[in-house]
């Protein structure tokens, strides 16, 4: 999203289905279709290809020309105004499922692993929308992505079980990344 303030969507105050999931449980369900990445961030990833490559587990690791698609998305949701999709390939876990080229067999993100190895502060090289998922910035709003979970069961980042906590509390860290520094959500919408 371009600089400025985004309005919080009422979906942030809905009751969560459960507490935050674990990668062992969801197996990176949100990574199935890849992600749109700001054009400037794509360049940052490519500038760090040597550091990223050792953490990748797909056949694409040695060919960064195949890490992103050619299609572009023009939207104010990206600082540059342009997004590129990550490529999608068979997952390295042998499941036969598709996934973002950066998802590893252990369901972790190779970009996050490379960032941690370099001592970069979070989110580092990890795309912003991956770091904030299931919270999205879209059309000037900060909201919960319910659409992905409709198409990909388990992609809501919640494990089953009763909770009285609201989405804004379960995903407070992700929401904080979407807000200007020091800003907080009100208690009610």
Kindly describe this structure.
- The chain is globular.
- The strands form three sheets. It has a three-stranded mixed sheet, covered by helices on one side. Strands 2-4-3 form a three-stranded antiparallel sheet.
- A hairpin with a 7-residue loop joins strand 5 (88-90) and strand 6.
- The relative contact order is 0.25.
- It has helices spanning 23-26, 39-47, 49-52, 110-118, 128-131, 147-151, 167-170, 172-178, and strands at 7-8, 36-38, 73-74, 82-85, 88-90, 98-100, 135-138, 141-144.
- The protein has one domain.
- With 189 residues, the chain is α+β, with helices and mostly antiparallel strands.
- The protein starts with 6 loop residues before the first strand and ends in an 11-residue tail after the last helix.
- Total domain units: 1
Percent of residues in beta strands:
5-15%
What's the total number of strands?
8
Structural class: alpha+beta
Number of helical elements: 8
* Strand adjacency order, main sheet: 1-8-7
Order of helices and strands: EHEHHEEEEHHEEHHH
Work out the radius of gyration.
16 Å
The largest sheet is: 3 strands, mixed
Mean pLDDT reading? 90
